[in-house]
């Protein structure tokens, strides 16, 4: 049960004193300063009001740290959700998003409870990089209108029509808005380069807000875009559920859960590398799931562990999950006492922040590095990237993972060797398999050896080899010492091979079968059976001796 214990319990058992609290409080304040503008910007990019992002940072951020499996993970709204959240809100309304997020939370809890957290790490890097880069492009594209101040009543949600609309309205660029956006962008970049310890996002927002207010520039702000936005924490409530609605939203719920799980565990791994600690992946998923349920209760957005905020937390001196909880409390204080100031924030400045976020998400260096990989990896990367931008995130993930799996199995099948006979084996002496013994192979005996795992990608090759013999021997030795595993298709292939041999009058000796393959064969009733002509021997030498006896019996 230790793997399902929140890290806060572990750290408290180790001892918690005032010095640790001070370090965590300073780190929490630092992260809160970073999270404030990001949470608002990401909420707006997702098609929601900025207060939804802040609520998510408070509720989900607190619960992720309190119940998660990482010492220093910081959670909240992230760029990974922008596309799916925007589409769910557009198609099903905000209540639809809450239902999808609630179901995603339950999926994450189930994933953690059934201990499948470690399986997420097997998602191929080209798929992760492809859809992350695609999301980055979509986020950046969604901010062009606010950055340039374009006069557009409605911006299409599809990528290509969106850019067609932008180019069609290019003559409506507002110079004041553009200058505010460019100014905020360069302030962020300059601070990142020359003063990386300063909160560049927040400084850029404050400066842009002051300039717009003092000069009374005709620039769109949060106050003009969201005049009825609440400035307090809402009372908890739950969305109205209907079975039909839940079924419609199930694909979106799985996408949200998948993205939350991937990003949370990636962030936890990054944190482990920076701190030398080790997270509990299954408990992290449970904490993420409960945090998303909590976010739904207060009308928030989907949440997950945020790599950038987690890294900031560590660099600021965080020692325990209390730092992430303090970050949430500091954001709550802003909502209670300073959220009215949000009305002065220019939309162009928020767009500048999201441009920088999108650039970081895109991981250009990694993307270029993967383009230098073999054609199969490059195809998965570009296909996932293109589908994310042009079709749909869910489709991109499904197709990317499926293609990557098929290509992996194709590569694996190339490593599996099927040998008609007895080729040299470096471990032959250890196993009692002497290659020279084939010279004395009894008449009427044929030998096959399989090197590697037998799964459905290579399942037909043994049958093909059998057909190519052209004649049926009296005894077939199937050497399986180098077969570490069988899947259902592999077992079926072995069964078909044996059945084909039996119909042709041959007896089968399975040589050196390892425990997993033997257990799998036993499940379908393939056990030693003298009547059926099926035999198991420990090694090749014993198999040859038995084959000689069987041929003699057959002759007589």
Outline of the structure:
With about 550 residues, the protein is mainly α.
List the helices and strands and how they pair.
Layout: H1 7-14, H2 18-45, H3 50-67, E1 75-76, H4 82-113, H5 125-142, H6 144-148, H7 159-168, H8 175-194, H9 200-215, H10 222-225, H11 243-275, H12 281-297, E2 304-305, H13 307-315, H14 322-338, H15 347-362, H16 364-371, H17 375-390, H18 393-415, E3 417-420, H19 428-431, E4 445-451, H20 461-469, E5 475-479, H21 488-503, E6 507-511, H22 515-523, E7 534-537, H23 540-555
Parallel strand pairs: 4-5, 5-6, 6-7
Antiparallel strand pairs: 1-2, 3-4
Helix pairs in contact: 2-3, 2-9, 2-13, 2-14, 2-15, 3-12, 3-14, 4-11, 4-12, 5-15, 5-16, 5-17, 5-18, 8-9, 8-15, 11-12, 11-13, 17-18
């Amino acid at each position: 049960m230790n793997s399902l214990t929140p890290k806060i319990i572990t750290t408290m058992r180790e001892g918690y004193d005032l010095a640790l609290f001070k370090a965590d409080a300073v780190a929490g304040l630092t992260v809160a300063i970073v999270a404030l503008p990001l949470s608002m910007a990401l909420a707006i990019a997702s098609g929601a009001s900025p207060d939804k992002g802040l609520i998510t940072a408070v509720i989900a951020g607190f619960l992720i740290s309190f119940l998660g499996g990482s010492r220093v993970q910081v959670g909240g709204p992230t760029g990974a959700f922008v596309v799916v959240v925007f589409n769910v809100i557009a198609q099903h309304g905000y209540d639809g998003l809450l239902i999808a997020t609630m179901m995603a939370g339950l999926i994450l809890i189930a994933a953690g409870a059934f201990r499948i957290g470690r399986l997420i790490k097997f998602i191929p890097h080209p798929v992760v990089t492809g859809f992350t880069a695609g999301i980055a492009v979509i986020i950046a594209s969604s901010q062009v209108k606010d950055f340039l101040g374009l006069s557009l009543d409605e911006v299409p949600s599809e990528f290509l029509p969106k850019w067609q609309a932008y180019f069609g309205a290019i003559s409506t660029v507002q110079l004041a808005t553009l200058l505010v956006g460019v100014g905020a962008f360069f302030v962020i970049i300059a601070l990142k380069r020359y003063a990386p310890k300063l909160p560049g996002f927040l400084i850029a927002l404050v400066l842009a807000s002051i300039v717009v207010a003092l000069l009374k520039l005709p620039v769109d702000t949060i106050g003009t875009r969201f005049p009825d936005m609440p400035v307090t924490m809402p009372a908890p409530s739950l969305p109205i559920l209907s079975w039909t609605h839940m079924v419609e939203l199930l694909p979106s719920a799985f996408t949200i859960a998948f993205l939350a799980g991937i990003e949370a565990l990636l962030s936890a791994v990054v944190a482990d590398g920076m701190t030398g600690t080790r997270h509990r992946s299954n408990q992290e998923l449970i904490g993420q799931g409960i945090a998303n349920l909590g976010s739904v209760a207060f009308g928030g957005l989907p949440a997950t562990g945020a790599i950038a905020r987690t890294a900031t937390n560590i660099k600021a001196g965080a020692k325990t999950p209390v730092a992430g909880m303090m970050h949430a409390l500091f954001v709550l204080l802003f909502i209670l006492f300073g959220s009215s100031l949000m009305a002065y924030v220019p939309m162009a400045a928020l767009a500048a922040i999201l441009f920088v976020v999108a650039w970081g998400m895109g991981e250009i260096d990694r993307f270029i590095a993967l383009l230098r990989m073999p054609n199969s990896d490059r195809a998965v990367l570009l296909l996932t990237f293109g589908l994310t931008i042009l079709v749909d995130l869910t489709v991109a993930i499904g197709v990317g993972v499926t293609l990557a799996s098929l290509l992996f199995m194709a590569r694996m099948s190339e490593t599996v060797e099927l040998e008609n006979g007895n080729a040299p084996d470096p471990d032959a002496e250890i196993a009692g398999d002497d290659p020279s013994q084939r010279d004395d192979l009894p008449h009427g005996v044929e030998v096959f050896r399989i090197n590697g795992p037998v799964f459905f990608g290579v399942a037909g090759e043994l049958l093909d080899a059998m057909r190519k013999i052209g004649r049926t021997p009296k005894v077939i030795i199937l050497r399986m010492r180098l077969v570490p595993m069988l899947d259902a298709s592999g077992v079926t292939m072995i069964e078909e091979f044996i059945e084909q041999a039996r119909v042709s009058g041959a007896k089968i000796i399975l040589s050196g079968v390892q425990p997993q393959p033997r257990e799998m064969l036993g499940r379908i009733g393939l056990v030693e059976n003298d009547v059926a002509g099926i035999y198991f021997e420990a090694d090749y030498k014993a198999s040859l001796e038995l084959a000689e006896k069987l041929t003699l019996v057959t002759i007589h």
